[in-house]
Amino acid sequence: MLPRSIRRAATAAALSLTLAVPLSAPLPASAATGGVPGAPGIGDVYFPDYGNGGYDVKHYSLKLDYQPGTDRLEGRAALLATATQTLSRFNLDFLLDVREVKVNGRAAAFARTGAHELEITPARDLPRFLPFVVEVAYAGVPSSVEVPGIVRPWIKRADGALALGEPEVAWWWYPSNDHPADKATFDVTVTVPEGKQVISNGVLASRRTARGTTTFRYVMDKPMATYLAMLYIGDIEVHRTRSSTGLPVTTAYDVTLGPRMEFAKASVERTPEVIAWESSVFGRYPFSSMGGSVVNENVGFALETQSHPVYDSVFFETGPDISVVVHENAHQWFGDSVALKQWRDIWLNEGFATYAEWLWSEKEGTGTAAELANALYDEIPADHPRFWVRVPGDPSPEFLFYASVYWRGGMTLQALREEVGDQDFFAILRAWARIKQHGNGSTAEFVSLSEKISGKQLDALFQTWLYTPGKPASPPGAVPSTAARKGLPASYESHKRFHELLHGPA
To answer: Whole-model pTM?
Structure first.
């Protein structure tokens, strides 16, 4: 069993300073004056009001009580944060009704502003560089809350609930600094009626049943972006085992999957095998547990929720689908451990996970990555009304998850591999995952690292494949075009079907 609180040294130090004091007791006053309000956005060019300025969250402690049927959620969140400026006021992103807010044990004023802002004014200014604790007591019915233009990511189920979405989900169930640029560790405790199951990220640290309720506690001991936190409550078939390396493995299946259950298990139960292979390619697996859940909700996508991806059962409608398991677990390195600095760099998540599928096909002998990249290049005509125009390096908020982010993003990596050779290419992938582990990265930083390792000037390559509208003049892979080959790679149709399930035809 892994310790409950393996955290970065900085987080551990802050916890020892702050959480040693009961949350109900006030911390010492500061002589600091002249505080200014934190910004209501973290500075994302696509989503300027997402996240907040003036502080950095280190840890979330969530204590939740959920009632299926009524969909009522009661919660108490404690956030350990550090002020990055002297703060007179700051914001959290949140939608449910708030009963009380305390900062360092003292009652704080709060108000609603904007579409999803909880504006908090502490009794005293918060000094720069010092840790502080925010407690928020709240309650509400998440499925009743709507935000114009956003598909509600909290799904009320007949037997429970599912919290799953990207880039928005946290607002519906816990207050946060909601942007990947501010990652933190998590401790999530959920009480439900006895007989219901709860799945969340990380290691199940405890489970207790008393007086008709069961309380589950999950610990995510590595920094996590807020959108990667998931919650799945209901009638669920749960399997718990260990990988060959000794890590806890949790797999969970909606009991209503019917004929899809067999295909889902045939896919998701292979998660330890997939992660073992990906570790051999990308470097050591970055988390303390692994697994996955299959839901019967027709959400229309799978999501790389940290250490425990969630899959729509539609992927397993006609048979097993290992591609989706490879894709979502590749995100554990690229997207989860190495998170975005800005949402416009989404290809660093999706292009890398797509390329992992192609590498799996290459390993299995059902088509090389170059063949798959070229097959897509050949099939999509230059005059396609959208695909070659929507560049993956800057897709716009409306097309954040469009096909070109995945496919042309993957083609970019194949073009890089052709340019620098296999030795440098795989060294680049491993170095990116290692150097940026549990942090954040940008496209500019990836280009710089690629140039440093390869010794080549690569601006033109990345400009062509990531930022220049129009079909590049040459295919990304140095193999004959589709027309010159006898048929497509064996994995091509299943690969294409997977991506069409994710985001529709190109």
So the answer is: 0.90
